[in-house]
Amino acid sequence: MLKYTLRRILGMIPMLFLISVVVFTLALAMPGDPFSGEIDPNNTDPEYIEEMREKLGLNDPLHIQYARWISNFVQGDFGESTRYKMEVSDLIAERLPNTVLLGATSLVITYILAFAMGMYAGRKPYTLGDHFIGGFNYFGLAIPSYIAGVFAIYIFSFQLGWIPFQGSVDITVEKGTLEYWLSRLHHVITPAIVLGLLNIASYTQFLRNDIIENSRKDFVRTARAKGTPEGKIYNRHILRNSIIPLITFLGFDIVNLVNGAIITEAIFTYPGIGQLFLNSVMNQDYPVLMTLTMMFSFLVLVGNLIADILYGVVDPRIRLD
Amino acid sequence: MEHYLHSKVPLLEIKNLETAFKIDGNYYNAVDQVSFTVERGKILGVVGESGCGKSVMSLSIMKLLPKGAGRIRGGEVKFEGKNIEHYSEKEMNKIRGKDISMIFQEPMTSLNPVFTIGYQIEEVLHNHFKITKEDARKQSIKLLRSVGISRAEQIVNEYPHQLSGGMRQRVMIAMAIACQPKLLIADEPTTALDVTVQAQILELLKDVQSVNDMAIILITHDLGVVAEICDEVMVMYAGEIVERSDVRSLFKAPKHPYTRLLMDSIPKMDVEEEKLGSIKGIVPSLKDMPRTGCKFANRCPKAMPECTELKPVLAEAEKGHEVSCLLYESSKTGEGTNVT
């Protein structure tokens, strides 16, 4: 397994190189350039502009510009945000904990709800309970998160006043106290549910269908013939098999954990990576934009790798070597 | 319960069992009024074509019919004198694997792919006995050895996909005999295996049967298998028993035309034949089953006009040899000629 993992990590290098070329090219293809953020906007003297372009290296041939960017990038120098005037790495480090908290909370809620509902619906298919869960899920699938988010804010925040409508923490509480963490949880719970809605629905229905399918397998009949109680058949024999295909989802979840929910964070004005990404696009903040895009791509690769390794752990028929 | 052990109560007694499947809202009997008994320590063979209700019958005894599809509509299933046919799932679970166990046709898919062989054998022990993990492990290694698996210590930690079909069927047998059941139902245990392995598995079944003194219901469509290990044999057609007798008398003098045709379709070493005998047509589907008369009439070479109207009764045509065919006087009246 170690050998397999190392080989996969090595295989990521050419992939990442290609991604970096694409990211760089796409950034160039965007209208405007990072230049506008770097100069004094009141000085429109063409000579001054030309001088600054030369100084910032924007007149160099493309491959030199790329080489300069990538060599800084691999050394951990992601550049400086043109908008926030601070190191991109510091900027991301500031936002990342918020997004990880949001993603993790959303994931925990998703897993708990999806497993509870999926296992129930799979065990008692075509009953009233199953139809109810199915209805709820298709509702969740059909409503886009920006609609659900707006409604959640309107109902729970403005009408009922249960939850704050923006931010990641109450600014009046002291950092590090229990109150501080409760406040953070209070802020994160609604965006987490809104973010998880779609996942809950797809997880639940997938698990349900897989449980129904597995319950018809021969090995279930064997377990019954051994006198194994019904509960154990479902919770062990069937569930253990039905978890295997869910691992594909888990690979994507790992990516979601960090790339944040661009739309959800924007609606709840939750200061996370998703919001930062959206702002960087709007403000043509190239260093942030390119770093985040590279980071997301890297995480997709890592997520897939983790999923593939987990397959080997969960399914004895898959051997990694 | 002890007093049954020495009494004359048969191990398994089935009376007028009817199992039906729902097709388009109506129930159709896949097992129709089947009655028979299984004596302790005997091997009963059940023979018939695909779709004749053999498997459904065996699943009905264990109450393992697929949920929602099949239903026992009537009749009695008595195990050691007790009527188990209306037992709850919980009550059945005490019997399944312990008193009655079962092995299936498909060893490739009958084991759970994500659990070790050891786990799957030990599970049946844990289901029925209070036993420590260590003891269960020792027991499962012993069981694997008893079914002729030599690397038992390693095999307990291996997964089903690492074993061949024959090995898996041995594992299934080890699992089935783990609690020393009184009855083993083997539903076509050798069908999916190649010929040499088939012989080994049959040999093994015979061995475990004599060691544990259990009864076996062996379901098969292979008359050769029946001749080899069974004491008694029952021929089924379209959910009904058409002939029943001890093995010798059946092979010496088959009575029902269907049984004869089955025998003709076995290749023989000593007779030179141009073409192997076969039975025309197939078992009609449940929906298309003839409602009156003999269900085999439309395929029967000896069919008489009354066959499509009068329903034959399974009755003794000869001492210990029952048949259900209008060629025999006994089947018209339902009274055996030699009934004592």
Automatic annotation (TrEMBL), chain A:
Pfam families: BPD_transp_1, BPD_transp_1_N
Gene3D superfamilies assigned to the protein according to its UniProt record, in alphabetical order: MetI-like
Transmembrane stretches, start-end: 12-30, 100-120, 132-156, 188-207, 243-268, 288-314
Subcellular location: Cell membrane
Membrane topology, from the record: Multi-pass membrane protein
A single BP term in Gene Ontology: transmembrane transport
One Gene Ontology cellular component annotation held by this UniProt entry: plasma membrane
Superkingdom: Bacteria
InterPro entries assigned: BPD_transp_1_N, MetI-like, MetI-like_sf
Domain called ABC transmembrane type-1: residue spans: 96-307
Annotated keywords: Cell membrane, Membrane, Transmembrane, Transmembrane helix, Transport
Matching SUPFAM superfamilies: MetI-like (SSF161098)
UniProt keyword annotation of S-adenosyl-L-methionine present: no
Recorded family membership: Belongs to the binding-protein-dependent transport system permease family.
PANTHER family: INNER MEMBRANE ABC TRANSPORTER, OLIGOPEPTIDE TRANSPORT SYSTEM PERMEASE PROTEIN APPB
Identification of the protein by name: Peptide/nickel transport system permease protein
Organism in which the protein naturally occurs: Melghiribacillus thermohalophilus
UniProtKB/TrEMBL annotation, chain B:
A GO MF label: ATP binding
Transferase as UniProt keyword: no
Topology in membrane: Peripheral membrane protein
PROSITE patterns per the UniProt record, alphabetical: ABC_TRANSPORTER_1, ABC_TRANSPORTER_2
Residue ranges constituting the ABC transporter domain according to the UniProt record: 12-263
Entry's transmembrane regions: none
Gene Ontology CC terms: plasma membrane
Gene Ontology annotations of biological process type: peptide transport
Location in or out of the cell: Cell membrane
Main location as per UniProt: membrane
This protein's record includes keyword Magnesium: no
Gene3D superfamilies per the UniProt record, alphabetical: P-loop containing nucleotide triphosphate hydrolases
CDD domains hit by this protein: ABC_NikE_OppD_transporters (cd03257)
Family, per entry: Belongs to the ABC transporter superfamily.
Name under which the protein is recorded: Oligopeptide/dipeptide ABC transporter ATP-binding protein
Lineage, uppermost ranks: Bacteria, Bacillati, Bacillota, Bacilli, Bacillales
